[in-house]
Amino acid sequence: MYDTQVKQEDITNAIENLQTKFDQPQFSFEIAHIADGYQFLTKPEYQVSISLYLKQKSKKKLSTSALETLAIIAYKQPMTKSEVEQIRGVNCDYSVQKLLEKELLEIKGKSESVGKPILYGTSPKFMEYFGINSLDELPVPKDFVSKENEIGEVNEA
């Protein structure tokens, strides 16, 4: 409709100016960089007051099995449901289905293995839900090969 071009520098400056403005204590929200975009979010110190005022119910939380399934896929994606089940040791049909419905997972393609099973991975909504911009921001799992986890003595011959 409007055939105008705005310089990236102008956009960046405008966002920085808005962030500076809303960092002031009189504002109950802030602009946050999440999932390769920007959102207005309630500042943590105002969240309880605002939710009481609006009488909001908290969002339904993910079940433990859904969180486990999501974590496995997030760290090892793309992967098939049977690969997740092999790690978890239980059927993951329900968890995967619920995570797809909530749009936290998406189908990434099909595996080249026998039967061409579906490959699953995290979605942009996953990034938004957990407030991260890339999978590199996921917490790093503890290194199970560290010295404190070794049993016995090292034999130096």
Task: Describe this protein's structure.
- With 157 residues, the chain is an alpha+beta fold.
- It folds into two domains: 8-54, Orthogonal Bundle (Arc Repressor Mutant, subunit A); 64-137, Winged helix-like DNA-binding domain superfamily/Winged helix DNA-binding domain (Arc Repressor Mutant, subunit A), CATH 1.10.10.10.
- The chain contains six helices and five strands.
- The strands form two sheets. It has a three-stranded antiparallel sheet. Strands 1-2 form a two-stranded antiparallel sheet.
- The radius of gyration is 22 Å and the shape is extended.
- The termini are far apart.
Quick rundown:
This protein is 38% helix and 16% strand. It has helices at 8-22, 47-54, 64-76, 81-88, 93-101, 124-130; strands spanning 29-34, 37-42, 79-80, 105-110, 118-122. The strands form 2 sheets. Strands 3-5-4 form a 3-stranded antiparallel beta sheet. It has a two-stranded antiparallel sheet with strand order 1-2.
Task: Set down the secondary structure blueprint.
Elements: H1 8-22, E1 29-34, E2 37-42, H2 47-54, H3 64-76, E3 79-80, H4 81-88, H5 93-101, E4 105-110, E5 118-122, H6 124-130
